[in-house]
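User: Can you help me understand a structure? I only have the sequence.
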Amino acid sequence: MILPRVKAGMAADRTTGRYIAVEGPIGVGKTALARRLASEFGSRLLLETVEENPFLRKFYEDPERHAFQTQLFFLLERYRQQRELGQLDLFTQGTVADYLFAKDGIFASLTLGADEFQLYQQIFQMLDQRLPRPDLVIYLEARTDVLMRRLKKRERDYERGITPEYLEKLTEAFRSYFHNYTEAPLLVVNCSDIDFVEHGGDLADLIKEVRAMKQGVQHYIPLGSR
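Assistant: Let's start by predicting it. Here is the structure, written out as tokens:
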């Protein structure tokens, strides 16, 4: 889902025109942060259409049976969005997305069998080489207990079957992927003890880090709002 430009609350700066992708495991706050950054920078907002996946509910009920269909739907839908994004003028306006296209493979590595994953990788590699790359990736991470608490708070019925064990595996897979990520500047943010939705100070501090981010990898471990 590509939403129109969000009106900025301040003058344009060097963040204008950047393509920023926000990533992290389920429940860490990707969409909430993407919305706020898009508003702050006057950027387009690109949201993945999770709830429109017709296989998602079936996947949580029977993962082994419905994993491939679920993953393939996500892959093709994200590809369609990214192709549309690539046809826009990224330099004059900028875009903030609540996902990185490459993250699709993280879930696939956990949910698919060996043969299915091999086929998935072939399709992914053909699609990935045609897509624009972000200018900055923000990777949000948090403890498993924090993620579980946030999932319960948002009360999506199809997420009720998610276990701490699955979240732990997913979180570790994200850590492993981003530990080796080199395709764009990377800002790693520990979100366990902050809440940029409820606490304006947490959001303001994080925005300062985003504005200051240049090249390489930077870790931001805030003192926390509690």
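Now, to help you interpret it: The domain at 2-220 is CATH 3.40.50.300 (Rossmann fold). The beta strands are 2-3, 19-23, 44-46, 95-97, 136-141, 186-190, 217-220. Let me know which part you'd like to focus on.
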